């Protein structure tokens, strides 16, 4: 759990929920997902539109993002 100054900084940014979700996603082993657990964007949508739905999508669809950027 982050110490109080980190939590205060996150609240000040107004992004505590998104940052915590991203940190949790990075802490778990990479399991291929076809849907983002935060915004419910689907892998097929990311492939078709080449757009992500939220910051957590970068971690969830990491391999696809790398393919798109290559």
Structural notes for this entry:
The chain has one domain (4-69). It is built from 5 helices and no strands. The mean pLDDT is 76. It is 60% helix and 0% strand. With 70 residues, the chain is an all-alpha fold. The longest helix is centred in the first third of the chain and has 12 residues, at 16-27. The N and C termini lie far apart (35 Å). It has helices at residues 4-13, 16-27, 43-49, 56-60, 62-69.
Task: Annotate the secondary structure layout.
Elements: H1 4-13, H2 16-27, H3 43-49, H4 56-60, H5 62-69
- What would the average pLDDT be, to the nearest integer? 76
SSE order: HHHHH
Structural class determined from secondary elements: mainly alpha
Query: How many structural domains?
Result: 1
Shape: globular
Provide a count of the helices.
Answer: 5
Keywords:
70 residues, mainly alpha
Structure summarized in a few sentences:
This protein has 70 residues and is mostly helical.
